Amino acid sequence: MCKKVFTSKGYLKVHSRLHTGEKPFACNICSEAYPQRLQLVRHLNLHEKEKSLIYNLGNKVLSKETGFKMLLGERSFACAFCKKTFPAKSKLEVHLRRHRGEKPFACVVCNKAFTIKADVATHLRTHTKEKPFSCDVCSKEFSHRSGLKKHSRIHTKQKPFECHVCKKGFSTKGNLKVHLRLHTGEKPYSCNICSKAYPQKMHLEAHLSLHEGEKPFFCVICNKAFTLKTDVKTHLQMHTREKSFSCDVCNKVFSHKSSLNTHLHAHTRQKPFECHVCKKGFSTKGNLKVHLRLHTGEKPFSCNICKKAFSVKAKLKTHLRRHAGEKPFACVICNKAFTLKTYVKTHLRTHTREKPFSCDLCNKVFSYKSSLNTHVRVHTR
């Protein structure tokens, strides 16, 4: 771990506890734990000294003997700032540092300061990438014991944090906090572009990705889209030039003849760009480029949240809606919302009872292509 050398196996064993956080020697009075037996002995001496004190428990001043007996059973050291009580004076001292803003222990790597020495050892793992706590079930490793504890609930199905509104259980306090926003309607994460708000940071991050490459401004002549309004203004100057090329079929205007020629392919159904692998034709070079990714397996557009990759940018944009929880397409009959326009079209068949897919063998009709494919297997058995 740190390559430090020791003269005996015993010393190495004790030193290793600094890395693992192991504290096998615990006080039977206040449960404070230590990595070395000597440290526990010193700590126990503090309790011996405490026997000579008079304890103020509640409003009663008690004798030395009675006070010490009660110390073992109930908390007796109260914080003057917040009235919180502690079973040991040492724990109160540590607690008081938080009120005073004292952080006497610093990280040797980045100088970050901490209130408790043990927190420095835990923090160091962010630099060393050490993960001393492993799951007994799946062997997954963790830097902190608390991380392992949370993870263990996945295997035990334990959900100790319950929603007071709907009684739903959660494995972590954080998940419960996020869930409660469904009841309160709280949406603390808002988009600085369109002001849309979300209950989770993850949803906002997904939403912000939708703005990337967004082109909300259109040219009134040719419908070309732009990211900035000023870009539309610059673009319009192209239409005012003497040489403008217009389509004889739909009257769409182009500033370059090459753009008009590309556009004409849409009307003539001409597909001059052929795939060298499968010989499929395309009307534009751009469409051919996208198609070739099917053969090469190239997926240049990846999700910044789950790292899933896509061959087409439009598919990534649709995927991001799932993370953002956005469903911009709604059914005109029941208002059920969907992430894709095609999903609305498919859903409408539940209302219209339309069945556009028929079996060639028995003429049975179906609302969905997947249902037809399942049915066809009956004939092929």
UniProtKB/TrEMBL annotation:
It is found in: Nucleus. GO terms for cellular component: nucleus. It holds the Pfam family zf-C2H2. Keywords: DNA-binding, Metal-binding, Nucleus, Repeat, Transcription, Transcription regulation, Zinc, Zinc-finger. GO terms for biological process: negative regulation of cell differentiation. SMART domains: ZnF_C2H2. Residues 1-24, 25-52, 77-104, 105-132, 133-160, 161-188, 189-216, 217-244, 245-272, 273-300, 301-328, 329-356, 357-381 form the C2H2-type domain. GO terms for molecular function: DNA binding; DNA-binding transcription factor activity, RNA polymerase II-specific; zinc ion binding. Belongs to the krueppel C2H2-type zinc-finger protein family. This is C2H2-type domain-containing protein. It comes from Larinioides sclopetarius. The lineage of its organism: Eukaryota, Metazoa, Ecdysozoa, Arthropoda, Chelicerata.
